[in-house]
């Protein structure tokens, strides 16, 4: 798996958030994106995940310009934004089932529902499957969104502030999933203001990309 940025840049309100960014994301790498508020982390993730076309430079997926292999890229990538991105009027199960149906991974309804039940159990929501999301706590709502990771199809995870509202045990579990995903040949790009403690730094998969807030970006080699 490889995703490359070549001379990537993005300007907002006559200010370059970043420019000339050459960066390679490879199998087995977990990239933590750091930087002050407003420095451009979310913007970079939205560009990387194919949601924003307003940038300079080039993105390559498996060596091909993204524009030429967009469908294959979108099928291989899972983006979870800093908002949970779930429908509050639907239940936890309906949200996940809807997501899976849209992803076209599994068309058989019964198999899909079993996988959704399993994924919700893995994020600690057993017994809450039929609860409307609007009646769940902030952390539980975030867990519904994160349950998509447990459905486990995409090789590249792009996660914007996934730890928001998650309790300490949930943070450890999510870090464990990210490490396991990388060790199995996947890749993760994650922004977080949360201090990860020792787990990720000692994992051997962690790399850092740091925004300095002045338009400079520093990439671990
Ligand atoms: N749609 C937009 N139009 C104009 N400016 C925008 C837009 N979206 C973001 N910006 C600006 O781009 C800059 C970078 O925003 P971004 O959300 O990428 O920062 P961030 O590093 O993720 O911040 P935080 O740590 O607060 O989440 C900010 O100054 C923001 O105001």
Automatic annotation (TrEMBL):
The ABC transporter domain, residue ranges: 1-221
Keyword list, A-Z: ATP-binding, Cytochrome c-type biogenesis, Membrane, Nucleotide-binding, Translocase, Transport
SMART domains for this protein: AAA
SUPFAM superfamilies with a match to the protein in the record: P-loop containing nucleoside triphosphate hydrolases
Superkingdom of this protein's organism: Bacteria
Keyword Transcription part of the UniProt annotation: no
Pfam hit, one: ABC_tran
MF terms in GO: ATP binding
InterPro entries: AAA+_ATPase, ABC_transporter-like_ATP-bd, ABC_transporter-like_CS, ABC_transptr_haem_export_CcmA, P-loop_NTPase
Protein name per UniProt: Cytochrome c biogenesis ATP-binding export protein CcmA
Lineage per the UniProt record: Bacteria, Pseudomonadati, Pseudomonadota, Gammaproteobacteria, Oceanospirillales
């Amino acid at each position: 798996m490889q995703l490359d940025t070549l001379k990537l840049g993005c300007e907002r309100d006559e200010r370059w958030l970043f420019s000339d960014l050459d960066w390679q994301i490879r199998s087995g790498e977990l990239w933590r994106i750091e930087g002050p508020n407003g420095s451009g982390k979310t913007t970079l993730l939205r560009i990387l995940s194919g949601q924003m076309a307003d940038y300079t430079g080039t993105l390559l997926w498996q060596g091909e310009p993204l524009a030429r292999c967009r469908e294959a890229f979108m099928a291989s990538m899972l983006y979870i934004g800093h908002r949970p991105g779930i429908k509050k009027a639907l239940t936890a199960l309906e949200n996940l089932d809807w997501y899976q149906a849209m992803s076209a991974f599994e068309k058989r309804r019964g198999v899909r529902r079993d996988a959704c039940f399993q994924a919700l159990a893995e994020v600690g929501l057993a017994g809450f499957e039929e609860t409307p999301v609007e009646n769940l706590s902030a952390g539980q709502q975030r867990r519904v969104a994160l349950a998509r990771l447990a459905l486990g199809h995409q090789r590249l995870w792009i996660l914007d502030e996934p730890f928001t509202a998650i309790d300490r045990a949930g943070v450890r579990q999510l870090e464990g999933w990210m490490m396991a995903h990388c060790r199995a040949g996947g890749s993760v790009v994650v922004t977080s203001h949360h201090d990860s403690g020792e787990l990720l730094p000692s994992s051997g998969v962690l790399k850092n990309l740091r925004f300095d807030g002045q338009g400079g970006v520093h990439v671990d080699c």
